[in-house]
# Entry
Amino acid sequence: MQPQIILLKEGTDSSQGKPQVVSNINACQIVADAVRTTLGPRGMDKLIVDGRGKATISNDGATILKLLEIVHPAAKSLVEIAKSQDAEVGDGTTSVVLLAAEFLKQCKPFIEEGVHPQVVVRAFRHGAELAVKFIQEISAKVKRGDEKEQRALLEKCAATTLNSKLIARQRDFFAKMVVDAVMLLDDLLPLKMIGTKKVPGGALEDSRLVAGVAFKKTFSYAGFEMQQKKYENPKIALLNIELELKAERDNAEIRVESVEEYQNIVDAEWDILYSKLEKLHKVGAKVVLSKLPIGDVATQYFADREMFCAGRVPEEDLKRTQRACGGAILTTLDGLKEGDLGTCALFEEEQIGGDRFNLFTGCPQAKTCTMILRGGAEQFIDETERSLHDAIMIVRRALKNDAVVAGGGAIEMELSKYLRDHSRTIAGKEQLLIGAMAKAFECIPRQLCDNAGFDATNILNKLRQVHHTEGGKWFGVDINNEDIADNMLAFVWEPAVVKINAVTAAAEASCLILSVDETIRAAKQQREMTNAERAYTSRGRPA
# Structure
C-alpha cells in the first residue's frame, strides 16, 4: 500500500473538479439575487446597516455589493466587475452582475453533463466578440456639429440613468443640471473639478449649480462679521500658513533676566505676525484663504482694511480654488508678488439653508463648478449624490463617444436574436453554447418586467415577435403602460459604450469563474502568545 503524502499544511481546505465549478456558479447566483430587484425604473432599494450602525439606502449595484463585504473568493469577481463598470462608465453596474450570473446559470447544465469548461470559455469569448461588433454596427450615431442636438442627446442619456434612481421624479431637473456641470469643464472633463456639497433641509428642487467654487463658511473669530462679504474681481491669496500667535510648545524654555527681555520676545512675535499681514495687504489681496487657522488678531486686521479671510479651509476646496482662480498655494510670504495671487469675477458669501457658503464665480483659469444638493434625510442626499455621480459619468462618456443605443431591454433582445440566428450557422457544441448565451441576454428585459410587476412571459413573447420584423430592433419594455414600445422614439437612450463594457466585463468574469477548477484555502495562522499576553490572561498567577 502506498504511503499517504502530505503536501499542504494541516488545516488547509482543498476542493476541486466539477463540483467546485458548480459551487462557484451557485455562489455567483446568490450575489446576483442580492441586487436583482434593484434593476430598472421600478427597482426596489436596499437598506444596508454596517458594523458601526451606519445605514445606507441605495439601489446602485456597485454600492450595494461594496457594502455587503462578500468573502466568497469566486463571488468576489462579480463585485470587482461591478466596481470596474462603475469606474469606467458609471452606470449599468446591476446589469453587468445580472448578465455574468445569467451566463453562468445557462452554462451550468452543460458543465454538469460533462462539457469541458474550456469549451464553454471559448464559446463565450467568441459570443462576446460578436455581440460587441454587433452593438457597434447598429448603434445610432449622433452628429457632432449641431450643439443643440448634442445637448438634447446628453440630457436624454442622463435622464435614462436617473430614471432608475431614487430621484427619478426630478430626473429632468437633475439631467439639465448634470449636463450644465459637464459642459462647464474643459476638454479633458476632469471629474475632480465638479465639487458636491450637501446641505440638509429644503426640497430637492432647491439644489443648485454654482459655475465656480463654493464651500462652507469656516470657523471664524471676532471681527469676521465686520469684513466685507462681496468683491468684484478680487485678488485671492491661497496660503498654507498659520496667521495667529502660537502658544509655546510644552518643551520650549526661554530664560530671561529682566522684564524688558521678556517684552522684546513678545514684541518679536507680534512683529512677525504683523509683517506677514502687511505683505498680504501691500500686494493687493482682497480675499485670503488658508488651510491653517487665521487668528483673531489677523481677522480684525483684515476687517479694518476691508479684506476677507477664511482659515481652516479643507485642502480639497483650497486646491479646487487654486485650479479655478489661478495663483499658488503659498507656504511662505517672503518674496510675495502679484503673480502668486489668483482672481475671479465675483466673490460673495451667501446663506444656503442653515449654512453660509463662500462662492467664487467667473473663474478664468480652469472651468469648474459645484453642485449644492438639498433634501430631507441625510441618507436621501447621499443617494442623490451617488445617482448624480452615475449621471455625470454617463454624460462624460456620451460626450467622448457619440454612439447611442435604446435602453429598456431593447438592445439585449436584439443581441439575443442576433446570437440565436448566428448560432444556427455553427456546427458542434459551440452552437448550443452561443444559443445559451443568447438566452442569457433576455434576463435584463425579464427582470425589468418582474420588478415592475408585469407578466414577463407575455411581454418577452411580444418582444421576440417584434424583433423578428423589419424596423423592430429598438423595441423594449414600456414600463409606463405595461407593454412594449420603440425606446429609441421614447428617448430611452444609453451610450453604446455602457453596453459594450457590460458585455465584455460579464463575459470575462464568467470565463474567469469557469476556468477555476480548484480552490485551496490556507489554514488561518494561529499566533503565538507573547509573555506579556500570557501574564495578562493568567492575571499574574503562574500557569
User: Anything to note?
Assistant: Residues 200 and 430 are 56 Å apart (CA to CA). The chain has a mean pLDDT of 86.
